[in-house]
Amino acid sequence: MRLAATALALGLGVFAFAAQAQQITGAGATFPAPVYTKWGEAAKAAAGLELNYQAIGSGGGQNQILNRTVDFGASDAPMDPAKLESGKLLQLPTVMGAVVPIVNLPGIASNQLKLTGPLLTEIYAGKIVKWNDPKLVELNPGFALPNLAIAPVYRADGSGTTFVFASYLSAVSPEWKEKVGAATSVKWPAGTGSKGNDGVSATVANLKGAIGYVENAFASQNKLTTAQLRNRDGKFVSPTEAAFVAAASNGDWANAKNFAVNLIDQAGAASWPIVSATFILLPKDPKDPARSANVRKFFEWAYKSGDAIAKGLDYIALPAAVKEAALKTWSAEIK
Amino acid sequence: MSTTTETGAPPLTGRRGSNLGDTIFAALAKLSGIFVLAVLGAIIAALALGGSKAFIAFGPKFLSSNDWDPVQETFGALVPIFGTIVTAILALAMAVPLAFGIAFYLTELAPAWMRRPVSTAIELLAAVPSIIYGMWGFFVIVPIMSQYVQPFVIDTIGELPLIGPFFQGPPFGTGILTAALVLAVMVIPFIAATMRDVFDTVPAVYKESAYGLGCTTWEVMRSIVIPYTRASVVGGIMLGLGRALGETMAVTFVIGNTNRIATSLFGPGNTIASIVALEFPEAETGSLKLSSLLALGLILFAIAFIVLAISRTLLKPGMKA
Amino acid sequence: MSATLSVIPGPAKDMNASLALGRKRKRANRIVKTLCLTATGLGLIFLASILATLLSKGIAGLSLTVFTTSTLPPGSHGGLLNAIVGTLIQTVLGAAIGTPIGLMVGTYLAEYARDSALGNAVRFVSDILLSAPSILIGLFVYQIVVSPLGGFSGFAGCLALALIVIPIVVRTTEDMLRLIPSQLREAVIGLGAPKWKMIVLICYRAAREGIVTGILLAVARISGETAPLLFTSLGNLNWSLSLTKPMASLPVTIYQYAGSAFQDWVDLAWAGALLITAAVLAVNIVARTLLRGRK
Predict the structure, then answer these.
(1) Cβ atoms B272, B298 nearer than 8 A
(2) Would you call A34 and C241 a contact, using CB atoms and an 8 Å cutoff?
């Protein structure tokens, strides 16, 4: 009892003398969390703003901003336009990222294996089950592909990465689009799930013959064995920054409603086919204009000075014209 | 960790007339009891309300359908219910013999100086946070399963007729069996502690007379201790089962999350708690998916309710024996 | 007691058969003993393996900055100070809210409602809460506190943890009060003391260590909980002691950092896992020593 009383007194004391720092709270997608927090750290020094960003998942970010429990939400998947409308939300892009396939095949180094979208679809559909399948051998004549079972690994947790990857499979395969489709989690026909990028990469590393998909930042930071993909122009490309930027700059930003641009399977000889933007969601009717102004100040700073930080963490910065259009829309929609 | 034991007297009520202090204290105690009742009622009401959309949309098929397709928005609870029950039963199949061995060792075999430290060490297993079990399971058990145990078993038992199909498929390391194994380690301390406590309640005179007749330790255990404590032991196992059913974080790391009913023990699966934890962050407010997840929560409460009710009825007569 | 002693052989008619049977019985006994020793060894190996994993992976991230710096972005040499303090505040406050309620419920069950219908219902419900998945508790607090108040807060996290504390304290309090011999109660009542004084002054005192153990076990349990905090106190990257704002905690930080792409975050996650397990185990050892000191 005495212990409880002391604890209560301590708690109330803390409550009364709580610090009152100016803070912006954001929540949502896991994918941009490192770059948002890094921006937050730099903006604290440059603009005097304290950002608290919590990676609770894209769906969580959408829920929280709809309930107005945070100052901004973040989502990898663009939000349904009708929901944006009814929730009085503005959707703006911040950075872009890519999803890359990773493999564990004895004797095959990074970016040596060649894959195509339709083949990836057949692997994840459980139709191509051996690495020495004639279709794979034909694509990779230089390597002796082993008689090894293919073990597809996907994200067990609902995630924007799954949405982007499944969007790509849907874009290249009408059958996948019809039978499985794209969402933050889908009804996988084959393989196993593992939690998070780390889970997928560890499961792939544990098992010879495994294939998985992770965010580019995760693959490059951890030097994972990635594979080449054939893009829309029929060229094989490796997952490099140049290939991501090529895809991003081919996007049709001007005609994308709510900035929900589709960067999947872009044209262009150098384009990496699985690229996507990540978004923030802002209330058009902020209950506290001062906080809303702080959020704007933060992202204005990030658009202007955040590109180097984004690149340092293996993200792709937005084209300058897109950032300009975003700020213009912001000024028009949120007074 | 401890079980209810009836050594105290029946409550002495109102022998000293009505005293103001007594009235207030008794009212406060009763109010707290009603509060707990109300909290569970509110949780169940919140889940039922949240899950009503799914129950209305799918009807009884929600329980029998194995289709969980977030894209088409059709949800069925069969795979997670199946996974919850199968992992829990497998976990018990592994945990009960081990826990029995530990309890037997601690009560009858271990030298006196070893009992306390070993007992504490086993109980500490119950204190490790479940996220730590998840990380340990994923980084220690999964590689062992995937690189040594599963390839070996698949090449040997997997080739056999009849039981072979239960041990086939790619050796991911994750899956139903691995989840059950991690759950088993988590419930061992609960079952072992209950067994140890009830074994200790056997009056020494019974055991001593059996020893006096020339019985070995195992014979005393089999013929005296187990029959005497059978109901309580089963009750303790049911408590362990209750824990295994609701475990969340540890399972999410190793289960593999798939919505197919696994035919192989090495195949990936799902439990109710794990699918709620893995999919909830991506479920939007008002969506059928969120409603289905809440409905799953309600089903889990119903399963826990049944298990607990069984363990209650088993524990009661055992204690009065 | 009607246990059958059919295994005990009757007076030996045939000496050789009797000896053979004795050998067989001894062998069975040896086999069972070996199996039990193996089972106990396995249990200890599991614990040792968990601790060894935490030590080997957690040491790399452990340094003084862990305790002096708050969480920072990858590559900025952050620590876990805000998460450690946040976990301390929420754990202590959660226990402070949950303990008195749990204590009163336990008292009600042991002293007032041993066999009443309401008592049985409360006991049953409390035990269901004991095995309820903690994520559902978090979801519930989100629905009744976070959503209506329009924001995540450390206080909501405390409430969720308090709801987890209550059934644990109820169970131990009731068990401990029931162990108090009836003679003691009768003696006190016989002296003319009112019942509430008997409970508070005599029963609580007699059951003190057991009840404290229950509270410490509850503290240990909630200090490692992730799921109920994800949607209540959310987490906070910055130093904040305000209960009305999102608050950091070690388990949530571990959960988010362990899966990140950046090695320094992963190291911090394991360091945090090591810290929290060490703290929880220490609290448990203290609690169990207290309990055993009584016997």
Answers:
(1) no
(2) no
User: What domains appear along chain A, each with residue ranges and CATH number?
Assistant: 22-96+277-333 (3.40.190.10), 99-275 (3.40.190.10)
B27 touches chain C (CB under 8 A): no
Beta-strand runs (E) in chain B:
68-69, 74-75
**Tell me, what's the ipTM?**
0.85
Both structure tokens of C292:
């055993």
pLDDT at A8: 45
Helix axes B112-124, C263-294, angle to 10 degrees: 140
Q: In 10 A of CB B167, how many CB atoms? A: 19
Running DSSP on this structure, what letter comes out for residue B105?
I
| Cross-chain residue pair A192–B171, CB shorter than 8 Å | no
Tell me the DSSP string of chain C: -----TTS--S-SSHHHHHHHHHHHHHHHHHHHHHHHHHHHHHHHHHHHHHHHHHHHHGGG-SHHHHHS----TTS----HHHHHHHHHHHHHHHHHHHHHHHHHHHIIIII-SS-HHHHHHHHHHHHHHHS-HHHHHHHHIIIIIHHHTS--HHHHHHHHHHHHHHHHHHHHHHHHHTS-HHHHHHHHHTT--HHHIIIIIIHHHTHHHHHHHHHHHHHHHHT--HHHHTTT---SS----TTS----HHHHHHHHHTSS-HHHHHHHHHHHHHHHHHHHHHHHHHHHHHHHH-
Specify which residues A215 forms β-bridges with: A99
The superfamily (CATH) of domain B58-315 is: MetI-like (1.10.3720.10)
Across C131-158, average pLDDT: 85
Range with the largest mean pLDDT of A73-77, A99-103, A289-293: A99-103
Nearest CA distance, C260 vs chain A (angstrom): 7
- Average of pLDDT values for C37-66? 93
Average pLDDT over residues A55-66: 86
Q: Which of B282, B285, B292 to mutate to test the interface with A (most CBs of A within 10 A)?
A: B282
Q: How many CB atoms neighbour CB A48 within 10 A?
A: 10
- d(CA C40, CA B123) in angstroms, rounded, equals 12
Q: What is the 3-state secondary structure (H, E, C) of A107-140?
A: CCCCCCCEECHHHHHHHHCCCCCECCCHHHHHHC
Predicted local confidence at residue C192, as pLDDT:
82
Cα angle for residues B86, B88, B94 (degrees, 5° grid): 105
Residue C286 distance to chain B (closest CA, Å): 11
Structure tokens, A303? 């658009």
Average pLDDT, chain B: 85
Q: Establish if A125 touches chain B: CB-CB under 8 angstroms.
A: no
Query: Are C114 and B300 inside 8 Å of each other by CB?
Result: no
| pTM for this predicted structure | 0.86
